[in-house]
Each structure stands twice: as structure tokens, then as C-alpha cells.
Design brief:
This protein has about 220 residues and is an alpha/beta fold. Helix 1 links the parallel strand 1 and strand 2 (about 25-30). The longest helix is centred in the middle third of the chain and has 13 residues, at about 70-85. It is about 15% helix and about 25% strand.
């Protein structure tokens, strides 16, 4: 495993990931983010003047990539593009995180401070497990999903690809939700849900589309 990392994404999430990388003993050699290309440095780390396409075409040897983009679909797209170029994705685990030896973490995953991933859990590639989130025994996190701060997946639950479990939201034991689902902060999901729905409340319910009533 290379010690050197280039982080794509220099916003707030990218900066937190850089802190995690450093605490884990990794060296962040550069940020890559066109939105910050005019900045010479961020947190003491150089910002490259190019975007990821130019970077991927001239990838430096002995260096891993970490994609620190908050948007789930965009993060997965960049990770897939990197894979097509043969660029290895880093896994970042904060030293304060507790990861079971029997758990599986895919390429490009970050486990933030205070995270717990318990026995036989599975976390898919490019997933984001945010501060103090819990992935209990046998739970499955889809690729590029995001567990918000303090979110809890209890035993044998599943969240699909690119889905989002909001801050302090909870999936009760055995609950499965599909791809591209958004669960609001503090919600408690008590029933399975399919793809592309938004769930809110206690217990969580799908949010219905609101339509304006035109005056007569």
C-alpha cells in the first residue's frame, strides 16, 4: 500500500478526509478540485491547477486516490473513472474507528472518527461512513452510500447504492432500503423501502409530492 494520497475534492468533506488520512499515517500530497484551483494550498497541502481528467491521464506512481466528493453519484462516477485508468483507491480509517476483523470495506471507503463497523458487515466501494455512525453485525452498505453523523444501521440491515441515511437516522433490525433512497435526519425506518424514495419521520414514511392548488 502506498503511503501517498491525492484527494479529489477540496471542500469541507475533502478537508476532513485529509485530517483522517494524516491521523492514519498517510501523506496527502495534493488536492485536486477545479473549484479551488486558484488556491496555492489548503491545510498546508498543494492544490493542483488541473481537474481529475488531466490528473488521471498523468497519474503519479506509488500514489493512491481518494474521492472526497459529498454527492454520492458524482463520487461513484469519479471512482469508476479512476478504475478505468487503473488508479488505486485508498481506504481511510480514522484511528478512533472500530472495525471488526470480519467486516469487509471496499475500495475508496472512509470511516470517520468514532465509527463502528461490527462483525461480518459489508461496506461497498466509495461509501462514506460519517462521524460516529454505526454499521452493526451483518449489515450491508451499498456502493457510494452515505451514512450521516450518528446514523445507525442495526443488525442485518441493508442500504442500497448511492442512498443516504441522515444524521442520527436509524434502520431497525432486518430492514432493507433500495438504491438512491434519502432518509431524513432522525428518522426511524421500520419497514422495507424500494428505490428512489425519500423517507422522513418516526416511524419513517415516504414524502409525498406537494402540489400547489391554483385559485379558481
Amino acid at each position: 500500500m502506498s503511503r501517498n494520497i491525492i484527494i479529489v475534492g477540496a471542500g469541507g468533506h475533502g478537508r476532513v478526509c485529509a485530517d483522517v488520512a494524516r491521523r492514519a499515517g498517510r501523506y496527502v500530497s495534493a488536492f485536486c478540485d477545479p473549484a479551488f484551483s486558484q488556491a496555492a494550498q489548503i491545510l498546508g497541502t498543494p492544490v493542483l491547477p488541473t481537474g481529475e481528467r488531466e490528473l488521471f491521464a498523468n497519474w503519479p506512481a506509488a500514489t493512491q486516490l481518494f474521492v472526497a466528493i459529498g454527492d454520492n453519484a458524482r463520487r461513484l462516477s469519479i471512482a469508476n473513472d479512476a478504475a478505468r485508468h487503473g488508479i488505486p483507491l485508498a481506504v481511510l480509517i480514522d484511528p478512533s474507528a472500530v472495525i471488526s476483523p470480519s467486516a469487509t470495506l471496499g475500495d475508496g471507503v472512509v470511516a470517520m472518527p468514532g465509527v463502528v463497523v461490527n462483525a461480518e458487515a459489508f461496506v461497498g466501494r466509495a461509501a462514506l461512513i460519517n462521524t460516529s455512525a454505526i454499521v452493526e453485525h451483518g449489515a450491508r452498505v451499498g456502493q457510494a452510500a452515505h451514512l450521516g453523523p450518528g446514523a445507525c444501521m442495526t443488525g442485518d440491515t441493508e442500504i442500497g447504492a448511492r442512498s443516504f441515511l441522515g444524521a442520527r437516522a436509524t434502520l431497525l433490525p432486518g430492514i432493507h432500503i433500495g438504491n438512491d433512497v434519502s432518509v431524513g435526519a432522525g428518522a426511524v425506518v421500520t419497514r422495507d423501502a424500494g428505490d428512489r424514495v425519500t423517507l422522513m419521520g418516526v416511524p419513517a414514511r415516504p414524502v409525498r409530492e406537494l402540489r400547489l392548488i391554483e385559485p379558481a
